[in-house]
């Protein structure tokens, strides 16, 4: 997938210059925006769709702010044509969206659902008609409930069902979709879903979380094979992860060890098997009291270690970690993943997450664009010159429509600008970054936060479903048109 946007020449002073300049991106750089099925589609039980784990989880009292759910969300299912027109108006070259497994294949196995596939086929056709390239993500956290009832990601059978689902989707959409992503942020699915329980299915089973991480890796590998068996030769397959830029509180050995532990649990547990064909030895040692890792069967790592055409990187903020203080309990939520009596940091539950200075986003997350640059440089250094794309990057703020009908969000504009500068710095340093997808196109159902957090560059009035392009959306359109950012 490539879009031909015009390049704008700018000042050629060094990257370290304090003077702002127009930072021109490669002429084939892809500019897009992203959403996820359960967060925007609504129509939860229309057209043959059955329940996902998020339909179930959001109905458990106390799990989601205000008892919200995705039954209606941003009603993208019924309003996709208007939303695609918005995308075209912003000049987007690509739209990254996920399929609802429960809509495509109710129950997660067996015969496909013609109505569900028809919806996505119409969406793809509408995008192409408006000059927006579709980028499909097969799994963005909404496992069919029936598969969870059979063991969920704790069962390797789910990986096999995923490969079958991938083939179904590719058979129907592969003639028009050139870029496919298997999974979005498997770390969240495994550790927020099965360890801390702040995400669906809401379980607190650390050993199962490790199993889930492996079975998600296996699903990626088997799904990649299934896609390539069904897709035209020119199609590309990607994986999207949410690696952390992990910074130790100090250079003391105990703080360095805390950073190592978090890096193993969030980054290398996925990057190493996919890109190197092995699990990190230190990760296995850190978790040896929980499991012997015998769920990794002969041949699994060969299935996982298949070449990817693109690695998607989702980034919001860096983390600073330190060694535990004797007698102190970890502060709930300070790691940015929601408050819980249970930790997602399996085997390293006592690591401290340090609050960073400065005004945070509405999520309580720190703002530090240098973390994105440093993360991209690290991936390039440690894993080689693999093509990358920023598949999510954005921020929630307290947006509202003013009396004049405008939504002014200067904090988001500055957030996006600084992070695009960071991406450009990484490109100048030799990192092969092919595109950028802001999170998100629309305000949406923000998982356990319900509708209380707004990430969109387009404001959604959930009572009326009225869309209003925010100042950040108009700013982003100008960046896309110029193919450059000031900084």
Plain-language structure description:
Belongs to the glycosyl hydrolase 1 family. InterPro entries: GH, GH_1_N_CS, Glyco_hydro_1. The chain is α/β, with parallel strands linked by helices and 487 residues long. The chain has one domain (30-459): Glycosidases (TIM Barrel, Alpha-Beta Barrel), CATH 3.20.20. The chain is 37% helix and 14% strand. The protein contains 15 helices and 15 strands. It has helices at 37-40, 53-57, 76-90, 101-104, 114-129, 145-149, 156-173, 186-194, 206-230, 253-275, 281-286, 300-304, 370-383, 410-428, 471-482; strands at residues 22-24, 30-34, 94-98, 133-139, 179-184, 236-241, 246-248, 310-314, 319-322, 352-354, 388-392, 433-439, 458-461, 466-469, 484-486. An eight-stranded parallel β-barrel has the order 2-3-4-5-6-8-11-12, surrounded by five helices. The chain has a three-stranded mixed β-sheet with strand order 7-9-10, covered by helices on one side. Strands 1-15 form a two-stranded antiparallel sheet. Helix 3 packs parallel to helix 5, helix 7 runs parallel beside helix 9 and helix 13 runs parallel beside helix 14 (410-428). The longest helix has 25 residues, at 206-230. It starts with 21 loop residues before the first strand and ends with a strand. The relative contact order is 0.14. Mean pLDDT is 94; it is low at 1-17 and 330-334.
